[in-house]
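Example S7 (structure tokens).
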């Protein structure tokens, strides 16, 4: 038998692992280069995104703690609102607004908005402005209904059917929403009127009631403003966002709604109405009090504050003199008999 040379086969077997390792290394480096090139824009803003989400989580925790404190203190809500509003404003500006602006600038720079499909928000592709506005009104009505009655929360909000025309039956939600919004605006106007009429009365009783209504009006206006200001960025009114409706945008407005409900439940009105914003003016109440005091007993006249500048001591002395004169007249009549 002829002896076969084994030199070439042994050399090839020795070079095969080296070639396999080099090919694998080249493939791995190519893959990592492509991966790093594609992921570099995300890596550059990853810490800004993490910071923004952490600040948003801390803001929710602070608001929840403030809500618990409001329920705990109840009557001291007015004293708690100014420092709470200042703290929330500073937290939103330093920890949320600045990172959000930076992330938005980085998004525009690296064209990250192209990664978000326009299918998530079909309102941004509508060519008819009437259909777009009707669809936005429908989304806002649904969001407010979920804020008041948070039932049937699911993940199908991006599949909401849009409004096609004015005759669409889905428009009744928007009509009901704008009617409620008009009533709310009217109530806010009455509350502002109560704040302006706070110092326009000279009676002690009316001044006390005006101060009570003014403090209550301030808290209610704060809660209503907090609801609308926190929901406004995601309302599609200024700029379309990457979703149609999401319940995560209602977390912060729900704090204002819960605080508003706590005001309604813990501060019932003494006049029979929940919001007695219309405060009687001093000029129209002087004559009414003058006529009503003619039929009041002596004790009610003594305890009622006067509107003509008479002090309580003078009223008490007058009432005591009247009662003494009545007793003396009765004694004289009995002696004459």
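Recovered sequence:
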């Amino acid at each position: 038998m002829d002896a076969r040379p084994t030199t070439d086969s042994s050399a090839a077997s020795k070079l095969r692992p080296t070639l396999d390792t080099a090919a694998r290394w080249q493939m791995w480096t190519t893959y990592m280069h492509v991966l790093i090139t594609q992921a570099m824009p995300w890596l550059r803003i990853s810490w800004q995104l993490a910071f923004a989400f952490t600040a948003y989580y801390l803001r929710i925790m602070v608001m929840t703690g403030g809500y618990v404190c409001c329920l705990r203190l109840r009557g001291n809500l007015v004293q708690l609102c100014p420092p709470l509003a200042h703290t929330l404003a500073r937290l939103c500006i330093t920890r949320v607004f600045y990172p959000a602006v930076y992330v938005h600038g980085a998004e525009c720079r690296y064209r990250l908005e192209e990664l978000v499909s326009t299918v998530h928000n079909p309102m941004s592709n509508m060519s008819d402005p009437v259909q777009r506005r009707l669809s936005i009104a429908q989304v806002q009505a649904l969001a407010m209904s979920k804020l008041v009655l948070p039932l049937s929360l699911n993940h199908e909000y991006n599949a909401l059917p849009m409004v096609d025309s004015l005759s669409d039956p889905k428009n009744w939600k928007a009509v009901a929403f704008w009617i409620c919004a008009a009533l709310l605006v009217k109530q806010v106007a009455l509350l502002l009127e109560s704040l302006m009429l706070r110092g326009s009365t000279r009676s002690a009783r009316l001044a006390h009631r005006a101060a009570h209504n003014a403090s209550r009006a301030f808290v209610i206006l704060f809660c209503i403003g907090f609801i609308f200001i926190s929901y406004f960025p995601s309302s599609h009114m200024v700029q379309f966002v990457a979703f149609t409706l999401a319940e995560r945008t209602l977390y912060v407005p729900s704090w204002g709604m819960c605080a508003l409900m706590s005001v309604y439940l813990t501060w019932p009105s003494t006049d029979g109405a929940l919001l007695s914003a219309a405060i009687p003016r001093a000029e129209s109440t002087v004559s009414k009090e003058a006529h009503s005091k003619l039929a009041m007993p002596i004790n009610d006249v003594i305890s009622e504050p006067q509107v003509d500048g008479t002090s309580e001591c003078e009223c008490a002395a007058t009432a005591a003199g009247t009662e003494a004169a009545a007793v003396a007249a009765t004694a004289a009549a009995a002696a004459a008999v």
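Notes on this example. The radius of gyration is 36 Å.
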